[in-house]
Design brief:
The protein is of the alpha/beta class and 350 residues long. Helices cover 49% and strands 18% of the residues. The chain folds into 2 domains: 5-164, Rossmann fold, CATH 3.40.50; 173-349, Dehydroquinate synthase-like - alpha domain (Dehydroquinate synthase-like, alpha domain). It has helices at residues 16-20, 35-51, 70-82, 97-109, 123-129, 167-184, 186-194, 196-200, 204-224, 240-250, 257-276, 280-292, 303-312, 339-349, and strands at residues 5-8, 28-34, 55-61, 90-95, 116-120, 134-139, 142-149, 154-157, 321-328, 331-337. It has a 6-stranded parallel β-sheet, with helices on both faces. It has a two-stranded antiparallel ribbon with strand order 6-7. A hairpin with a 2-residue loop joins strand 6 and strand 7 (142-149). Helix 11 (257-276) crosses helix 14. The protein binds nicotinamide-adenine-dinucleotide and zinc ion (ZN).
Length: 350
């Protein structure tokens, strides 16, 4: 598979001639979205596509996690088939991570795979979930348990669409962005933490900068390890072992993904100090910052339940949970961590 082209600029969503160039030879496009994103941006993108000469076949998925199930995928594939779309057509996914995950999945299996373009409309989507090619749906047994690797040909990040984001979606995206800072680029961590209020207020230039840096890191890492078999891609999971556990324990949709990651990073910073030599002063300073971000902690989360969920994490090996830890900001390593160490870190934070 090839690296996705990355476009970050104001109103780029309205310039499909640019980002659809070279994607497919057909003029037929499946435009896939959900009600929230469609209401705000759908008709603009649809019109721009039509003006550029494309024939648009629109399909709306259910909103949020409801997009990520077999029925929703079957409906979308049915729409595409009824429209007579061939293997030379392309799919454009317009929405948050739930739309790009589900629509990307449909693109990967329709007629054994067609090209697609991701147009993420959430901050999390633009800097992380809208690129890298992990597509998928949820099963009754848990989130993201069925899916494919199918990279979009292009990722179209328009800072203008983020103006309407609610605060919690912004926190969720910035939480994931802080991860990129801690793991790969300490200067990015410093930039986000020192401009937090402006970023929360939606400052367009700063937000675009954060999107650009994180998306560039994600692409760089995915290029080295597309299927998470060689190591580098695992590093993107800093804060995610316990973050995912908390997300599941809270119940689907209760915590935003990045909110859970913020919490998971607090635990990972403690473990990094204990196990990987991260300096106490930095661990404490970073924890102090993360603890000031308003993240709703679900009440009565049982530490032992989080531990059990951490063991189900795909990184667990031989009964010991695996964590991405930091020797120092920008110097990550994957290490196994004992149950008692995990429980201690969790109890200190809950
Ligand atoms: N594939 C990956 O690598 C990857 C990585 C992380 C997360 N994910 C997945 O991403 C999903 C979460 O995505 P998400 O956080 O983007 O949320 P989402 O797609 O569920 O969207 C959240 C809400 O925001 C609304 N919305 C979308 N754009 C908006 C805008 N510009 N202004 C106002 N409201 C807007 C939507 O209507 C929706 O109600 C999860 O399913 C998660 O598993 C995937
Ligand atoms: Zn994440």
């Amino acid at each position: 598979m090839t690296t996705e082209k990355l476009y970050v600029s104001k109103n780029i969503r309205l310039k499909p001639r640019l980002w659809l160039r070279d994607v497919s030879s057909s003029k037929h496009i499946a435009l896939v979205s959900e009600a929230g994103a469609w209401r705000r941006f759908g008709s603009g993108v649809e019109k721009a596509l039509k003006v550029a000469g494309y024939k648009v076949h629109r399909h709306l998925l259910p909103s949020g996690e409801a997009a990520k199930n077999w029925d929703a995928i079957a409906d979308l594939l049915g729409t595409m088939l009824a429209a007579g779309l061939g293997r030379d057509c392309a799919l454009v996914a317009l929405g948050g991570g739930s739309v790009t995950d589900a629509a990307g999945f449909a693109a990967s299996i329709y007629l054994r795979g067609i090209p697609w373009v991701s147009v993420p409309t959430t901050l999390l989507g633009q800097l992380d979930s809208g690129l890298g090619g992990k597509t998928g749906i949820n099963l009754a047994g848990g989130k993201n348990l069925a899916g494919t690797f199918h990279r979009p040909r292009a990722v179209v990040c328009d800072p203008a669409v983020l103006a309407t984001l609610p605060d919690r979606e912004r926190v969720s995206g910035l939480g994931e962005a802080l991860k990129y800072g801690l793991v790969f680029e300490p200067a990015l961590w410093a930039m986000i933490t020192s401009h937090w209020d402006e970023l929360m207020a939606g400052d367009p230039a700063l937000t675009a900068k954060v999107v650009e840096r994180c998306a560039a890191w994600k692409r760089h890492i995915v290029d080295q390890d597309e299927r998470e078999t060689k190591g580098p891609r695992e590093l993107l999971n800093f804060g995610h072992t316990l973050g995912h556990a908390l997300e599941s324990a809270a119940g689907l949709g209760v915590l935003r993904h990045g909110e859970a990651v913020i919490w998971g990073m607090r635990a990972a910073l403690r473990l990094s100090h204990e196990r990987a030599g991260l300096k106490a002063a930095f661990a404490a300073e970073a924890d102090r910052f993360l603890s000031t971000i308003p993240v709703p902690l679900p009440r009565r989360v049982e530490p032992k339940r989080l531990l059990a969920l951490a063991h189900r994490d795909k990184k667990a090996r031989g009964g010991r949970a695996r964590f991405v830890l930091l020797h120092a900001p920008g110097r990550p390593a994957v290490m196994t961590v004992s149950d008692s160490e995990i429980l201690r870190a969790v109890r200190e934070i809950l």
